[in-house]
């Protein structure tokens, strides 16, 4: 293996040798046990080998390789171990050589050093597969899967040829002998079935996944990977293309979080980053391994299983107290996007619609994009919604909301009403929804960010439900935007995070303005205000972070490169600090804002729709976007714009882009924003109040303060945060005037900063509450509590950390602990 990594370092290794074999479909069959905090079951992986998929991408060299593919061998009988011999009696057609193969194959696996679970369970990594390579004169092919913290129990080759009816998939002449080649041929035919047969295909994947084993395979694990080989199989072509892995997760595995929800009931959910799903199931993590999947998950009947799946699954009662849920997807996506959550959540349904609810679907003007592109797609084949005229005009896709019982009311009040207008807004800006449905789950308090988007499911933090609908709406729009940027169009190299976060941040304002049906002038004002807030944040972050972490394309010209086997490392992928940095969101946002302003919104968004149409269902690098953009805009609008310039100014340097400064962005920031004059008045009023001598303070009530929107309030508090001193009565009036502790989490965050900065003790309870209920945002506050060197504040920080650290997400614990101790 080319990449030797010290797991304590910052980079995340992607080990899977996707250049040799590429997974096309996963069938998961899992059982969730909350007692032991273990998910146990099997995963069956269906592969294409390198020569095949490279052939499909029309490389002549590889085609030759395939043509000379004589390397096929019969499997070596002495290594086959078939535990389910009886199953073979149902076998009919000419599989005689198979049956012979069954005989006399004693369990030689142990003496061959197979199934080394004891070793790997105790963390000792061995390399036993090396021991008999010399016997063959040539090394066996090694399939490498990304895997971490899993107890692998068994790896076996699946006898897909044993599935009744499977002979339909192969030409009759090939049915004479059962061999590795035949089985692989069957898998090949199955994974390449035309998209119209997706239902039949899913069905056969399940049947194959349950087929008997035709031999166990050697395996070994180390920190980051599972390595599998079959004696005598020297190339990927000879290697079994359908393998079944029996395994268990470990309670400490980092892909899932076992915790309890806000109603105190147990639940488990996938984390996304930093290590994605490799501690949930062995997989090929590199995004290039785009695959479909289906999963059957069993849990106690009181639990709801939510998952990335096209179908809105309902439970099937298995036996008393246990039910099973089945989900599937037909659109190939990277395994990292797979998401699951199991808990005692309730589905939130509307109380009762009232006529002026946002819920009422408004007649949105039909956008010109609606039907124009129907029929043409450039991705690999799958049943795509862009090709379905009915789907392209669906503004609001079916959606469900799940939450712990205690948050049902607030979800009805806020979230449920926002969903239709936000979905509809996204449709009117970008066209067809790439996915057919959406579940939203309010995740437990320890969720480490405000939201996370996965195919068919969005996680939202409870922090988004506080205050009015503003924070919830903007966040929802952000996550919905990821459906296009991040999911339907993925980054080929994960270091280019801006390709999803920059786009989602830029689009959230556009969607949100549309969802609120703001007049153009109001929409512009809101967008400018948000630009201003983001500029503050970006400037602060650039001051306080290492330069190399401010670069959006850190691998520069090596971006997207992988080793010969397909392995690579994701720069800073494991750095816990990175989770708390927003530079990819913010600089990415400013780049897109800059481009959109340069071209004019109309041109930009019409281009964006074209871009979505061309690249959905595919992976991209920065240059794919920039090149297409520059090709599509009139020359007079881009005299000094080139891909190289944009790389240099925006993507490959630290700090604030030069172009941005030329654009006057810096000025907008340093002088208070000219577009929010009312607010400047408010700041002045507060300063006046603060400077008034004590005895005249009683007249404070006479000052009349304007009502402020949440973003305006945040900006006001940010201004006030720059003041050296704010008197206690000023803080008191401030809080009373705006009911700060009832505002949304963004506002309360600034309020807590003010409390900490001015040691405003009578409001310390607001800080305590924030640290417990808004854990995704509270991390920064710990730092502020500690730097003051005030004993009481430090005590408060430590006390709150003690209360939440057991539940808190791992990288937050790491970062906070460093601040506190
Ligand atoms: Zn398509």
Task: Explain this structure.
It is a single chain. By secondary structure, the chain is α+β, with helices and mostly antiparallel strands. The protein has three domains: 12-255 and 277-288, no CATH class; 492-671, Neutral Protease Domain 2 (Neutral Protease, domain 2), CATH 1.10.390.10; 676-820, Peptidase M1, leukotriene A4 hydrolase/aminopeptidase C-terminal domain (Serine Threonine Protein Phosphatase 5, Tetratricopeptide repeat, Alpha Horseshoe). The chain is 37% helix and 17% strand. The protein is built from 26 helices and 24 strands. The strands form six sheets. It has an eight-stranded mixed β-sheet. A five-stranded mixed β-sheet has the order 17-18-19-21-20. A four-stranded antiparallel β-sheet has the order 10-11-16-13, with no helix packed on it. A hairpin with a 4-residue loop joins β2 (21-33) and β3 (38-49). It is globular and about 100 Å long. The chain starts with 11 loop residues before the first strand and ends with a helix. Mean pLDDT is 82; it is low at 1-7, 56-136, 354-374 and 668-675. The structure holds zinc ion. Zinc ion (ZN) binds next to loops.
What's this, in brief?
The protein is of the alpha+beta class. The protein has 26 helices and 24 strands. The strands form 6 sheets. It has an 8-stranded mixed beta sheet. A 5-stranded mixed beta sheet has the order 17-18-19-21-20. A 4-stranded antiparallel beta sheet has the order 10-11-16-13, with no helix packed on it.
């Amino acid at each position: 293996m080319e990449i030797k990594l010290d797991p304590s370092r910052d980079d995340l290794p992607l080990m899977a040798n996707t250049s040799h074999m590429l997974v096309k479909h996963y069938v998961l069959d899992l059982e969730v046990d909350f007692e032991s905090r273990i998910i146990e079951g099997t995963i069956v992986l269906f592969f294409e080998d390198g020569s095949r998929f490279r052939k499909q991408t029309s490389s002549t060299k590889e085609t030759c390789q395939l043509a000379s593919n004589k390397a096929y061998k019969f499997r070596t009988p002495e290594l086959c171990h078939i535990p389910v011999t009886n199953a073979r009696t149902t076998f009919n057609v000419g599989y005689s050589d198979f049956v012979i193969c069954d005989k006399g194959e004693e369990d030689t696996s142990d003496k061959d050093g197979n199934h080394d679970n004891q070793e790997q369970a105790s963390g000792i990594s061995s390399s036993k597969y090396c021991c008999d390579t010399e016997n063959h004169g040539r090394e066996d092919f090694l399939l490498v899967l990304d895997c971490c913290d899993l107890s692998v129990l068994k790896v076996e080759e699946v006898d897909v040829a044993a599935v009744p009816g499977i002979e339909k998939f192969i030409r009759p002449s090939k049915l004479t002998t059962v061999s590795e080649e035949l089985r692989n041929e069957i898998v090949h035919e199955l994974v390449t079935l035309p998209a119209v047969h997706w239902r039949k295909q899913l069905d056969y994947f399940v049947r194959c996944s349950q087929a008997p084993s035709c031999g166990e395979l050697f395996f070994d694990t180390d920190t980051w990977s599972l390595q599998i080989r079959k004696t005598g199989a020297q190339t990927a072509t000879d290697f079994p293309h359908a393998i079944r892995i029996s395994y268990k997760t470990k309670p400490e595995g980092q892909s899932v979080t076992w915790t309890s929800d806000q109603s105190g009931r147990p639940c488990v959910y996938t984390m996304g980053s930093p290590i994605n799903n490799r501690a949930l199931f062995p997989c090929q993590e590199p995004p290039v391994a785009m695959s479909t999947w289906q999963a059957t998950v069993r849990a106690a009947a009181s639990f709801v299983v939510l998952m990335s799946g096209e179908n809105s699954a309902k439970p099937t009662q298995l036996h008393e107290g246990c039910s099973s849920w089945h989900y599937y997807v037909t659109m190939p996506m990277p395994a990292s996007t797979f998401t699951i959550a199991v808990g005692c959540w309730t589905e939130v349904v509307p109380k009762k619609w009232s006529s002026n609810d946002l819920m009422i679907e408004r007649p949105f003007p039909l956008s010109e994009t609606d039907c124009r592109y129907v029929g043409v797609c450039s991705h690999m084949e799958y049943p795509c919604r862009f090709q379905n005229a009915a789907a392209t005009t669906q503004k609001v896709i079916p959606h469900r909301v799940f939450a712990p019982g205690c948050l049902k009311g607030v979800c009805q009040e806020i979230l449920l009403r926002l969903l239709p207008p936000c979905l509809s807004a996204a449709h009117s800006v970008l066209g067809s929804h790439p996915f057919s449905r959406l579940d939203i789950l309010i995740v437990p308090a320890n969720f480490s960010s405000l939201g996370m988007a996965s195919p068919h499911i969005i996680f939202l933090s409870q922090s988004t439900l506080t205050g009015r609908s503003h924070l919830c709406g903007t966040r929802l729009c952000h996550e919905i935007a990821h459906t296009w940027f991040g999911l339907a169009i993925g980054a080929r190299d994960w270091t280019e995070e801006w390709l999803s976060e920059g786009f989602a941040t830029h689009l959230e304002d556009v969607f949100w303005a549309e969802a609120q049906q703001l007049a153009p002038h109001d929409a512009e004002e809101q967008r400018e205000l948000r630009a201003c807030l983001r500029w503050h944040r970006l400037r602060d972050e650039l001051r306080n972070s290492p330069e190399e972490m401010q670069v959006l394309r850190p691998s520069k010209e090596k971006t997207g490169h992988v080793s010969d086997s397909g392995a690579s490392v994701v720069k800073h992928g494991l750095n816990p600090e990175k989770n708390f940095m927003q530079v990819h969101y913010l600089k990415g946002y400013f780049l897109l804002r800059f481009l959109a302003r340069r071209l004019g919104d109309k041109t930009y968004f019409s281009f964006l729709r074209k871009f979505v149409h061309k690249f959905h269902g595919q992976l991209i690098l920065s240059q794919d976007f920039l090149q297409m953009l520059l090709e599509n805009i009139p020359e007079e609008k881009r005299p000094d714009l080139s891909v190289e310039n944009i790389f240099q100014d925006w993507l490959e340097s630290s700090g604030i882009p030069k172009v941005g400064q030329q654009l006057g962005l810096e000025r907008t920031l340093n002088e208070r924003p000219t577009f929010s004059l009312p607010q400047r008045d408010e700041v002045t009023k507060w300063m006046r109040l603060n400077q008034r001598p004590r005895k005249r303070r009683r007249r404070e009530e006479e000052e009349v303060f304007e009502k402020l929107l949440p973003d305006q309030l945040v900006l006001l508090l940010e201004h006030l945060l720059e003041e050296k001193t704010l008197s206690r009565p000023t803080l008191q009036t401030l809080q009373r005037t705006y009911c700060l502790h009832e505002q949304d989490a963004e506002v309360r965050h600034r309020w807590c900063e003010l409390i900490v900065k001015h040691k405003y003790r009578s409001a310390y309870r607001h800080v305590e509450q924030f640290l417990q209920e808004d854990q995704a945002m509270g991390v920064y506050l710990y730092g502020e509590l500690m730097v003051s060197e005030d004993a009481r504040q430090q005590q408060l920080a430590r006390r709150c950390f003690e209360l939440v650290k057991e539940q808190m997400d791992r990288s937050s614990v790491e970062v906070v602990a460093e601040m506190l101790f």
